[in-house]
Design a protein that fits this description.
single chain, 541 residues, mainly alpha, two-stranded antiparallel sheet, two-stranded antiparallel ribbon, globular
Length: 541
């Protein structure tokens, strides 16, 4: 049990090395077996994980750089648990998406395994430098996957993806060194444990361009994570990367890599820089609304199947950021659940787009029509997954978006109303896509001869659809994990168990409201004189 997380991280890496001496065709069986073992281990982790324990569980740690107390340290809490489950589910799906691949198959399988290690390590790292190493490691296999196995403009898309995300990573590295040095100067010793930075004291005297130190660190972290989400207007790399990437790359890019951005917001930006988050949360809300509407509107204009799904991701991830910014129990539960929902439904959509491209070598709507008659199994799964994506009640997408809009309405009814129009746009472009692809007369002889979904494709899609139904009908097993912020004590939906830094966050959230703070201290004559204490509860006396 002590090394369970270590095996989840290094298992795929060992599988990639094991592929080396074997033939191309054998490598895909090794890769599928390795990823399925990882999925089984993640399921085991889910059942042995204790929601009553609010701290990091199953921690594994080894000294890495002793002089600076930097460690190879892993741990899991409710937030990372859900994302590890999502990762371990989607990697075998990506492998099955390339089951008939013949071009450099072994290299593709090894890159998928290396990507599995990097993504899992990103969600499980509890040392801030280890997190950064895994974060950067994700770039290497994904750039190769896009650049080698992608479409005609794959080199351009791979370089654009690398440059955008690497630029954000440089900003994040600056922020990491800043808080690492600040902690050492305040406490007299080094620590790289992520949770140790949640109680930093921030000086308001250090300013640059009118911004405090906390605000500068927050912006450095948040821009890096916003690029990965991607949050409007940092999204322009995403459509190119999705369209040019092979099917497995698009699946993992949408299902897992984008979630690294929102995970970073919840793990770093908000708890390390709470006051700065409060200052910039309105701006982030407006940007998320812009992403919701822009992504939906541009998706509405598309004539390319894969581009439509790519721009829909910009819109759906805008909902996740909006839920984080609303900062109440309902919206945060919805945001974390929507990360999983988007990974399931959009990953399945990219799988279906890839299956159709493999048969027809086209993604243009004009080349299709009437496929419901020619490939009925394909038509069923495309309709089912599309319903989940556009938040039809009874399926997973509805639960997440409903909670986000409910929590946003409690915070700002106008923002909730505007965001709801994105749901309408989403239904519109999805239904138009279904009509153009599946219904109407069959206008091409090629479409009459298309083979329906094969056995390995059915094996990939059926589990995803079952999980979508499960979350849509009974989401409680997923909602009890992952919410990283407290509810009000009198809320009927208040969480019974909070992650390990929740007590400090509660102090800050109380400190944001100067009026309520003064009411609590109404008997003290010093309430007005010490108003700064309400604004910065972690500052040094």
């Amino acid at each position: 049990m002590d090394s369970l997380l270590l095996w989840l991280v290094i298992g795929p890496l060992l599988g990639a090395l094991f592929c080396l001496p074997f033939a191309e065709k054998i490598s895909k069986y090794i890769t599928l077996g390795c990823t399925l073992v990882g999925f089984v281990l993640s399921i085991f982790l889910y059942f042995v994980f204790s929601p009553e324990n609010s701290g990091m569980q199953f921690q594994w740690s080894s000294v890495w750089i002793a002089s600076f107390q930097i460690r190879f340290a892993l741990g899991v809490d409710g937030l990372s648990l859900l994302l590890v489950l999502l990762t371990k589910l989607m990697v075998p799906i990506a492998v099955l998406a390339h089951w008939r691949e013949t071009r450099h198959l072994k290299g593709l399988m090894m890159n998928l395994l290396l990507l599995d290690t990097a993504m899992t390590g990103t969600f499980l790292a509890t040392d801030i430098f280890l997190f950064y190493v895994f974060w950067e490691l994700v770039l290497i296999p994904m750039v190769f996957i896009i650049g080698i196995w992608g479409s005609a403009e794959r080199i351009y898309a791979a370089l654009k993806f690398f440059l955008y995300t690497f630029a954000g990573s440089v900003l994040m590295l600056v922020a990491i060194f800043w808080i690492f040095s600040a902690f050492a100067s305040q406490h007299g010793y080094y620590s790289a444990d992520i949770s140790s930075f949640y109680g930093l004291s921030w000086s308001k005297d250090v300013r640059f361009l009118g911004l405090t130190a906390q605000e500068l660190v927050f912006l450095a972290f948040t821009i890096a994570f916003a690029i990965k989400v991607p949050l409007f207007p940092f999204h322009t790399w995403l459509p190119d990367a999705h369209v040019q990437a092979p099917t497995g790359g698009s699946i993992l890019l949408a299902a897992v890599l984008l979630k690294m951005g929102t995970y970073g917001l919840l793990r770093f930006s908000v708890p390390i820089c709470p006051e700065a988050f409060h200052s910039f949360s309105s701006m982030l809300s407006y940007l998320s609304i812009g992403g919701i509407l822009y992504g939906a509107w541009v998706a509405f204009q598309q004539t390319d199947f894969k581009k439509l799904v790519a721009y829909s991701s910009v819109s759906h991830m805008g909902f996740v950021v909006l839920g984080i910014c609303a900062m109440n129990t309902e919206s945060l539960r919805g945001a974390v659940l929507q990360m999983v929902n988007h990974g399931l439904s959009t990953g399945a959509l990219f799988f279906l787009v890839g299956a159709l491209y493999e048969r027809r070598h086209s993604r243009k709507f004009a080349d299709f029509g009437g496929l419901a008659k020619a490939v009925p199994r394909y038509a069923f799964f495309l309709t089912f997954v599309s319903c989940a994506s556009m938040a039809v009640p009874g399926l997973n997408g509805f639960v997440g978006e409903f909670l986000i809009l409910l929590g946003t309405f409690a915070s700002d009814p106008w923002l909730a109303g505007i965001a709801a129009t994105g749901v309408i746009f989403g239904a519109a472009y999805t239904l138009i896509m279904l009509r153009q692809v599946l219904f109407g007369p069959i206008t091409s002889e090629e479409n009459k001869l298309l083979p329906d979904l094969r056995r390995h494709e059915m094996i990939a899609l059926v589990p995803l659809c079952l999980v979508m139904i499960w979350i849509g009908i009974y989401p409680q097993p997923f909602l009890k994990y992952g919410v990283p912020f407290p509810a009000k004590k009198d809320s009927p939906t208040a969480l019974a168990h909070q992650p390990f830094w929740i007590e400090e966050w509660g102090k800050v959230s109380q400190g944001w409201s100067k009026v309520s703070h003064c009411e609590e201290r109404s008997r003290s004559r010093h309430c007005e004189e010490r108003s700064d204490e309400a604004i910065s509860p972690w500052s040094s006396p």
